[in-house]
Write a structure and sequence with these properties.
heterodimer, A: 248 residues, alpha/beta, six-stranded parallel beta sheet, 4 helices, B: 248 residues, six-stranded mixed beta sheet, 40% helix, globular
Chain lengths: 248, 248
């Protein structure tokens, strides 16, 4: 790719076009490759903040019966995009948990493309977005089940919490299925904070900021529920909640 | 302890409480009964400071302080407890975590030291035992998947842990089976029947009053207290119905 993508490209439709234009074309060629050998597990987590480059692009091949587990908190500046393209061999599994959180006018997004072209591979993606100000959180998730992808089990779950009028969340599940014996589930919900829950908590003495922190924590924790390393899950949650606290 | 004078309150511009006056002294239990739509729950929510319930006239003082001037969490810290008619579910937040945060949030507002995890668990275990609620229930998410009766018992466990000066219990008896009613009634007595505490018991039925003997029974109709009597008034209501008793 030598041209900088524009928001006319489907995969970049919610991107911040000004931020894109400011990037050099090389940036778009910088892919990181992850190869998970058959039967092995590769687990990695990311906290993308303002110090990270705008684009984190990963191309992964997950060998037979192998597992790739990626967990990420996206709290970057202006425009921060994490993209993961995964090819699953027979019986492989891809687990993805992502949180976008923050205010300002930044666009923070996860873009995944998961290819199930061999039998019995599974994938599970859980993304939670919490935004305020004029910020945007996106999840664009493509799942491609080819003819060879029989007995695929793929799931995508996106939920967004918009704390203020002006913030935005976009969900774009994109399922393309050419095999007949597959399970593909996707769900997307965008809503506001549960005011009754906040009131209930206040009625028990919880100060509004403590209540909000607890509710947001509970909301985003789903994204890291599949992360077996509890300390690491805690570290990611705290990184995300720090952004909320700075706002409160 | 709690003094309500000429209270007028409205929801969405519709006046529900129309000049309600009532005084509850320390050591007293007052039952509020009344037909559907009389304003019983509105009274509870106004005392608990629920957003959307607007007081247009009148005063409420609690231990000499202006209750209406306090935020909901400040009312809780000052010793006010509201038992919900429909306890709220909070997915992702465990009862134990919620109550410990609530208790410590109250203690902080009162300038007291936080309670340690160990001390808290001991207290929670004791109160759960009093209400015959399995300790396992307290480890689960707040009210999620609880039956109607379990939710109400959980409200009383919360009351036991938070140990308020004054409790407004909004139809705590509804949804309880006969055995649970007895347990809850005895729980209320154990926690709140003290010379320095007060209770406002909102109920439709006389049944709960067999276990929790009220010092006064008030009939609330069309937004005002229209009749006040002793525990016998509740029995009379049960026998004759609201229309007849109020006409007498």
């Amino acid at each position: 790719m030598t041209d900088i993508p524009t928001i006319r490209d489907e995969d970049w439709r919610y991107a911040d076009s000004n931020a894109l234009a400011a990037l050099s074309p090389d940036t778009f060629e910088q892919w990181r490759d992850i190869d998970v050998p058959a039967g092995e597990t590769h687990r990695e987590s990311f906290v993308l903040d303002a110090a990270d480059p705008s684009l984190t692009r990963i191309r992964a091949k997950v060998g037979e019966g192998a597992r790739l587990e990626l967990f990420a908190v996206n709290l970057g500046g202006d425009y921060t995009r994490m993209e993961v393209i995964t090819y699953l061999h027979t019986g492989a599994h891809f687990e993805f948990g992502g949180v976008t959180i923050g205010g300002g006018d930044a666009v923070r997004e996860f873009v995944t493309r998961t290819t199930h072209d061999e039998p019995e591979a599974t994938s599970n993606q859980v993304v939670r977005s919490v935004h305020w100000g004029e910020a945007t959180g996106n999840f664009l998730g493509a799942i491609n089940v080819g003819r060879g992808g029989q007995r695929t089990d793929a799931a995508q779950d996106f939920k967004a919490l918009v704390l203020e009028k002006g913030a935005t969340a976009n969900a774009k599940p994109e399922l393309e299925i050419f095999a007949d014996d597959v399970k593909c589930a996707h769900g997307a919900a965008i809503g506001q904070m549960d005011e009754m829950a906040r009131y209930y908590m206040a009625s028990r003495g919880l100060a509004p900021d403590v209540a909000k922190r607890l509710l947001v924590r509970a909301f985003i924790a789903d994204a890291f529920a599949a992360l077996a390393d509890e300390d690491e899950a805690e570290r990611l949650l705290e990184a995300a909640l720090k952004v909320l606290e700075d706002r409160l | 302890m709690l003094k309500i004078e000429n209270l007028h309150a409205e929801i969405d511009g519709k006046e529900i409480l129309k000049g309600l006056s009532l005084e509850v002294n320390a050591g007293e239990i007052h039952a509020i009964m009344g037909p559907n739509g009389a304003g019983k729950s509105t009274l509870a929510y106004v005392l608990g400071g629920r957003p959307g319930y607007e007081v247009t006239q009148g005063t409420v003082t609690f231990d000499g302080k202006d209750l209406l001037d306090m935020e909901p969490h400040e009312r809780a810290a000052a010793g006010m407890f509201l038992g919900f008619q429909y306890p709220v579910e909070i997915p992702g937040v465990s009862n134990v975590q919620f109550l410990r945060e609530a208790l410590n949030s109250q203690r902080k507002q009162r300038g007291e030291e936080p309670m340690s995890g160990g001390e808290f668990l001991k207290l929670a275990k004791e109160k759960a035992g009093l209400l015959k609620l399995d300790m396992e229930m307290l480890k689960r998410n707040v009210n999620v998947g609880f039956s109607g009766g379990e939710k109400k018992r959980n409200e009383m466990v919360q009351m036991g842990i938070l140990d308020p000066q004054f409790a407004v219990l909004d139809e705590t008896d509804s949804g309880l089976d006969i055995d649970a009613l007895k347990v809850v009634g005895e729980g209320i007595n154990a926690i709140m029947r003290k010379s320095d505490k007060g209770v406002m018991l909102i109920t439709h039925y006389q049944r709960l009053l067999d276990y929790v003997q009220p010092d006064f029974v008030h009939i609330l109709a069309a937004g005002r207290i229209v009749k006040t009597g002793s525990a016998d008034l509740a029995k009379q209501l049960e026998a004759d119905g609201y229309d007849e008793v109020m006409a007498a």
